[in-house]
Amino acid sequence: MLKFTSSMYAVLAVLAWTGPVAAQQSPPAVASQTQTIKRTPLQRFDVPGTAYETVIGIAEIAPGVSIGRHTHPGPESGYVMEGGFELLIDGEPPRLLKAGDSYKVPARAVHNAKTGSAGAKVIATYVVEKGQPLASEAK
């Protein structure tokens, strides 16, 4: 996708991005919902002196969408700009996120996000090892 305080990317996470980012990393669960998720890549830049890069983007998720269980090789954080969603991180209680909330998802944590009747618009930030996919489908 995308909540970015301790959950969501998907939301968009929850979110594999279109353009160069999505070309290398869209998990099937996310890629199959291209009609229900609009992704806008904003920035991609190296973290100086490391083998990591930061990817930032906006995801607009239609109402009633489940992003699909997935992971990221690094942490995801985000901010809900509009609407809301339920962030489901394995081993944690579900979190309902609404506009104004932020979230974080630990590296490699299996998670999913489900929007309600209003859908959601989030800005998500990923810190990932260079050359690794932004997201991978989880079983």
Encode the helix/strand succession as letters.
HHEEEEEEEE
Span between termini: 17 Å
Q: Estimate the strand proportion.
A: over 45%
Q: How many H/I helices?
A: 2
Instruction: Tell me the structural class.
Output: mainly beta
Task: Give the rounded overall mean pLDDT.
Answer: 81
CATH topology tier name: Jelly Rolls
Give a count of the beta strands, DSSP E runs of length 2 or more: 8
What is the CATH-assigned architecture?
Sandwich
- Principal-axis shape equals globular
Quick one: biggest sheet?
A: 6 strands, antiparallel
Helix coverage percent: under 10%
Low-confidence stretches: 1-33
* Name of the CATH homologous superfamily: Jelly Rolls
Count of individual domains: 1
User: What's the Cα radius of gyration?
Assistant: 13 Å
Q: Which CATH top level class fits?
A: Mainly Beta
Give short descriptive properties of this protein.
single chain; 139 residues; mainly beta; 6-stranded antiparallel β-sheet; two-stranded antiparallel sheet; 2 helices; disordered N terminus
Briefly characterize the structure.
The protein is mainly beta and 139 residues long. The protein has one domain: Jelly Rolls (Sandwich). The N terminus is likely disordered.
Folded structure, characterized:
This protein has 139 residues and is mainly β. The chain has one domain (20-137): Jelly Rolls. 7% of the residues lie in helices and 47% in strands. The chain contains 2 helices and 8 strands, in the order ααββββββββ. Strands 1, 2, 4, 5, 6 and 7 form a 6-stranded antiparallel beta sheet that branches. The chain has a two-stranded antiparallel ribbon with strand order 3-8. Strand 4 and strand 5 (95-98) form a beta hairpin.
